[in-house]
What we know:
There is one protein chain. The chain is of the alpha/beta class. Helix content is 41%, strand content 12%. It contains 13 helices and ten strands. The chain has helices spanning 3-12, 23-42, 73-84, 106-113, 136-155, 174-181, 214-224, 261-264, 279-286, 296-299, 318-354, 381-397, 425-449; strands at 129-133, 163-166, 195-202, 227-231, 256-260, 272-276, 358-360, 368-373, 404-408, 411-417. The strands form two sheets. The chain has a six-stranded mixed β-sheet, with helices on both faces. Strands 7-8-10-9 form a four-stranded antiparallel β-sheet. The chain starts with a helix and ends with a helix. The model is unreliable at 5-15 (pLDDT under 50).
Amino acid sequence: MDADQLKECATNKMEGELEPMDSEQLxxxxxxxxxxxxxxxxxxxxxPVLSQVQPGYRRELLPDxxxxxxxxxxxxxxxxxxKIFPGVTHWQSPSYFAYFPSNSSVAGFLGEMLSAGLPNQFxxxxxxxxxxxxxxxxxxxxxxxxxxxxxxxxxxxxxIGRLVAYSSDKTHSSLFKACKIAGIYEENYIASGLIPxxxxxxxGTTSSASIxxxxxxxxxxxxxxxxxxxxxxYAGSACICPEFFHCLHGIEEADSFNMNAxxxxxxxxxxxxxxxxxxxxxxxxxxxxxxxxxxxASQENTVVDYKDWQIPLGRRFRSLKLFMVLRLYGxxxxxxxxxNHIELANIFENLVKQDPRFELVVPRNFSLVCFRLRSPVDGxxxxxxxxxxxxxxxxxxxxxxxxxxxxxxxxxxLRFAVGAPLTEERHVVSAWETIQGKASELSKxxxxxx
Length: 450
């Protein structure tokens, strides 16, 4: 193709057509995208926290096939705003109080665009080491597999049907999914002649942020030669504050430890840090070494092959996000950030205490408050459960805030988890006023029925 033909092709290109990689387009589109994201955060309080549309609403709004020709970035962003946002639950909203937080931050964004305090046994300078997984679900799966293979070396592969894992009834469901994947089935729990091989303790359970006694669990695990895994996905972040160091008492006896930096540590999803005491057990279970992956550095053990520490072969540069968060915020600011959320939860807890219609179901831990509306008939838990289900639906249907629920000792309980980066005291107070208002409406309906 001669110079004139090249010039003609260039002229015929659609104006603004996106190249696979062009430095000036990257600069131009990058600026527009940053502006779009910044505007979103500036206006985030104007959106309903919980989506107010019905599942499937987009079928009528989006085409059935991809466009034959490229569209402008602005038209795509307009569709995101007008057609996608209505179906989004805004986890970064300052009025998001459901489940647990999923943090983002300026430093986290910068790290994404470019994309401590444990015992020595967990460090790579010894027999252990750390690896960033995508989620806590991946973390518990890989250590469960390592623990399974380790015990099967002693009892033989045919013993897999006798293996049993232990946890409390408040352990996250990801453990049970991991057991299914690893071939450890529920019927194992009721069979005889079992072989205990895995024990999971939690620092900050999902239901109530309760803390398992790690030291006692460690003693049981040591006596029975069981792999002890500690899931601190939520509350692990708080343990950078000296006043919460005691929550990890006994961690030095654990075989593995996990916390999600993307939950409460200002790091964009996904970033789940996992430490293991015996990296050899993990590597032996997950290692593959096909010819096409062999290289001098790996063969000479001069590098860490993280493909052997995880399920997928490839991995994202997640550590860069965490690196930037630590460098740009510093530990003192991160501690201040966490303490602020805990204080806001304390404010909400006190508001609940001041209204005799409500009760705190369990003591507040960290930034989670578990509460519920009392039954107008003393001792009628069934009525109280129905009331709180109705209250949850009424509150969330307003779109002004989002809370979630759990069940504790057969009681339907409302959860108020503070953790969004933009949440201030006014959001907490406003949320409580909405909850009180909807509770009053329910009370009037009950009076009419009675």
